[in-house]
Amino acid sequence: MSDNFQVAIAVAIFLVTYAVIISEKIHRTIISLVGAMLMILFGIISHETALEVIDLNVIGLLVGMMLLVGITKESGVFEYIAVTIAKISRGRPIPILVALSMLTALASGLLDNVTMVLLIVPVTISIARLLDISPVPFVIAEVLLSNIGGAATLIGDPPNMMIGSAASLSFLDFLVNLGPILFIIAFAVIGMLVLIFRRQLTVTDAKRQQLMKIDAARQIKDQPLAEKSLLILALVAVGFVTHQFLHLESATIAMSGAALLLIIVRPDIERVFHHVEWPVIFFFVGLFILVGSLEVVGVIEWIAVRVVSLTGGELLPSGLAILWVSAIVSAFVDNIPFTATMIPIINEIGQLTALSSLDPLWWCLSLGVCLGGNGTIVGASANVVAIGMLEDNDIHVSFLRFMAIGFPLTILALVLSSVYLYFLYLT
Prior knowledge:
This protein has 21 helices and no strands. It has about 425 residues and is an all-alpha fold. The mean pLDDT is about 85.
């Protein structure tokens, strides 16, 4: 099979797979696995390479945190937190949305966006049930803000970890250079979300009064389990914050926490593993192989090199091109392989040009790949996990509905980022 034919087949399989995902005629997990198997059957990617491109760190992180959250949920602690937050906000949906969104953004920078979504969505669904309203506006807001908050630190999003390692950038470097613009973007996005969802964020006075009468403490079903679960979650959170110093992957920390809680609690193991969102896990397996196939045949590298070659290596056009193309591509394919492809290209720019520092280009790449994840459901791991958790509660959010909200807000974030980068780094 010729190289050109392989590229054509790989692109065709990828585009058809995405078209079916968008159409929702077939469940996205099924079609992602079908697409992945076609890549292997047509010889686009070997069986061995297909196994290698599956990011086991992401898979391990997801499974470990799903087990931790599943066990913790049985204690009633999420219902307790939900009632407490709802009562502090006097049962008013808009203040609740703002509070949950900001909490998600801040915590996503200290943990990571997937972990925060796994923790906050059960609380959100409980609050929505208390108020008898849809949890969808809250969950979409949390997903978008988790990706924005995760972009602010070295450990908030996997691409930042890769960039930090390649460019010797610290936790503080990311926070100081990207924190200000992401703070502005967060407030802008929350404001737009309130405008978009304001008609859905209404609650009757009767429901609010009913809520205020609920005793939060009575929501705890198993006090010892709640205490043990929260202790392990706190240890895992510390592990996430310090994992670069411990030289441990986030998956190792999450799985270690899950194993420790399992041995302490000794739950019904069959029931516990029902808490793992297996359709989400296998969707990621298929997606990794699909994107890995494009990487193997050189499609992702071709896009990256083509964009950079058009800019002539000049700082301003190179920076803006990296920002916008990274964001658009990352809305539709996983941002990890794209980041891996762009890192050596940016280093090459440094060798071929007289740029005094490559830091501005690293900030452009980080903002592009992290913010681009808000464009579609499949743009970031946190998106897929959150929508999967809604579906587990019989609440459906279509690909197009998410994109209709996420993509315009991504463009807004990119415009604000472009202005910020232009005045501080690209001139």
